[in-house]
Amino acid sequence: MTYKMEVPAMTAVIYACYSSDNQREESIEGQIRECTAYAEKNGITIVKHYIDRAISAKTDNRPEFQQMIKDSDKKLFDIVLVWKLDRFARNRYDSARYKTQLKKNGVKLMSATEIISEGPEGIILESVLEGYAEYYSADLAEKVVRGQTENILKGRCNGGRGTFGYTLDSERKFHIDPLTSPFVLESFKKYNEGSTMKEIRDWLNENGIKNPVGGAFTYNSVEHMLKNRRYIGELKFRDVVVPDAIPPIIPLELFEDVQEKIAKNKKAPARRKAEDDYLLTTKLFCGYCGALMFGESGTSRTGEVHRYYKCATAKKHKGCKKKTVRKQWLEDLVVNQTMQLVKDDAAMESIIAKVMELQNKENTNIPLYEKQLRDAESGIQNMLNAIQAGILTSSTKERLEQLEETKRELEARIAEEKLAKPKVTEEFIRFWLLRFRKLDMSLKDQRQALVDTFINAIYLYDDKVLITFNYKEGTQTVTFGEATEVASEGNGSDLDCFTALEKLSTMC
Q: Are 294 and 174 members of one domain?
């Protein structure tokens, strides 16, 4: 049987930063060099560098980093590659927040020099923090959703600076702007007649037209304008859609014609959808050469598609003889082994205890600030006692003012730390982790969550697979013979395909 190979290429961007707070860190050039070498070894194509130089480790004001997070939504790359994971964020709480944003955009974070960073339980802690943020956001949203729904029912703007082409009155109701609305209408007409979004952008900027925030128009802002259903009078909030809520600027027929043309002109994103279907990408390594293993597919003459994992080194014919492994078979094996861990009460209690211990260690600033605050309050009280005793000099007054300023700064720091680093209770950690027992492992997103949370790395050989979980005692070796025995017990998985696996490996 002959196979036509489809080889999707993994794409990545490199993020490098140099902190002015630590002169011993690897240079920008060194970070890029090691990341590039890692990418070349593993068949990853680097498409862009994002670099922040001399940025303080105490601030999150990283313009290139923020741009990278925004760009991840454009579907132009699959991976963010860093020299070390601590280059990505200043603490685990920021890391969880930004990794969540990347995950929503289908982008994974990888380190060129480490698989495990700061202890394996840290990855589980980040997963818990992501879950905590989810619940907090849901609770907060529930408190404001009623008012915002009421706003759109009354034709009011929920927030922001409004929409180009409209003005807002004192009650935040929409009115057609006689100065800017003609440019909205003309933009739709131009696109419908064949102009590109870039041409419309240039036309608006040449005429000195500013967007709602006072800046120049960009390609993205033109695209957003041409897709905005407010221009046909429609307001939407969550699942509530209100037609004819505000005065329309664009006729419905023209709007629909433009949407049809946008759909026809839209090009497919650079990344391939096939890669989204491979559960173990970035966690699966060749047991023989240590290179990453990526998903590939082959189509037979009959049109049947076979998906499998292949060693990056073997793919480039550079000496590794690792056989390909059937995708579904391996993924089922890994998921089943991970579920065994999740269902083990002793193992889960051990993980919960270690996650709690790690969290307590990472909140080191708060106890320090609290001690300094107590010292400042004690000093203030001593000064007040001295004043009551009749001891009042210029130096006493100056010292009292200094202590009061110190107290205010420390109170602000403590409040900031508590907001940035919320302490998650043991009960929430237990709830968040044990909920995996109830997830449906037939669903891709839930399988992915299981793998992302509990698995650190997988090392694949021709006769066995070694799985390292995200806790120190968590290493499991499973031979393929054992896997087929499990399958023979009738668990309904794809693990009974071992014979087919060997056959496919030989043919490919």
A: no
Statement to judge: residues 473 and 343 lie in one domain: yes
Q: From CA 201, how far away is CA 216, in angstroms rounded?
A: 9
Q: Name the amino acid, one letter, at 271.
A: R
> Which tens digit of pLDDT belongs to each residue from 333-380?
999 998 988 898 888 888 888 878 777 766 556 777 788 888 888 888
What is the count of structural domains for the chain? 4
Domain that holds residue 394: 364-420
For the entire predicted model, the pTM comes to: 0.55
- Contact 165/246 with Cβ under 8 angstroms? no
Residue ending a domain, choose from 240, 265, 290: 265
The contacts of residue 377 (CB under 8 Å, 6+ apart) are 407
Task: State whether 38 and 102 are in the same domain.
Answer: yes
Instruction: Please name the helix (run of DSSP H) or strand (run of DSSP E) that holds residue 176, with its range, or none.
Output: strand 174-176
Strands (E) located in 239-326? 240-242, 284-286, 293-300, 305-311, 325-326
Name the nearest CA neighbour of 309 among 322, 329, 327, 291: 327
137 within some domain: no
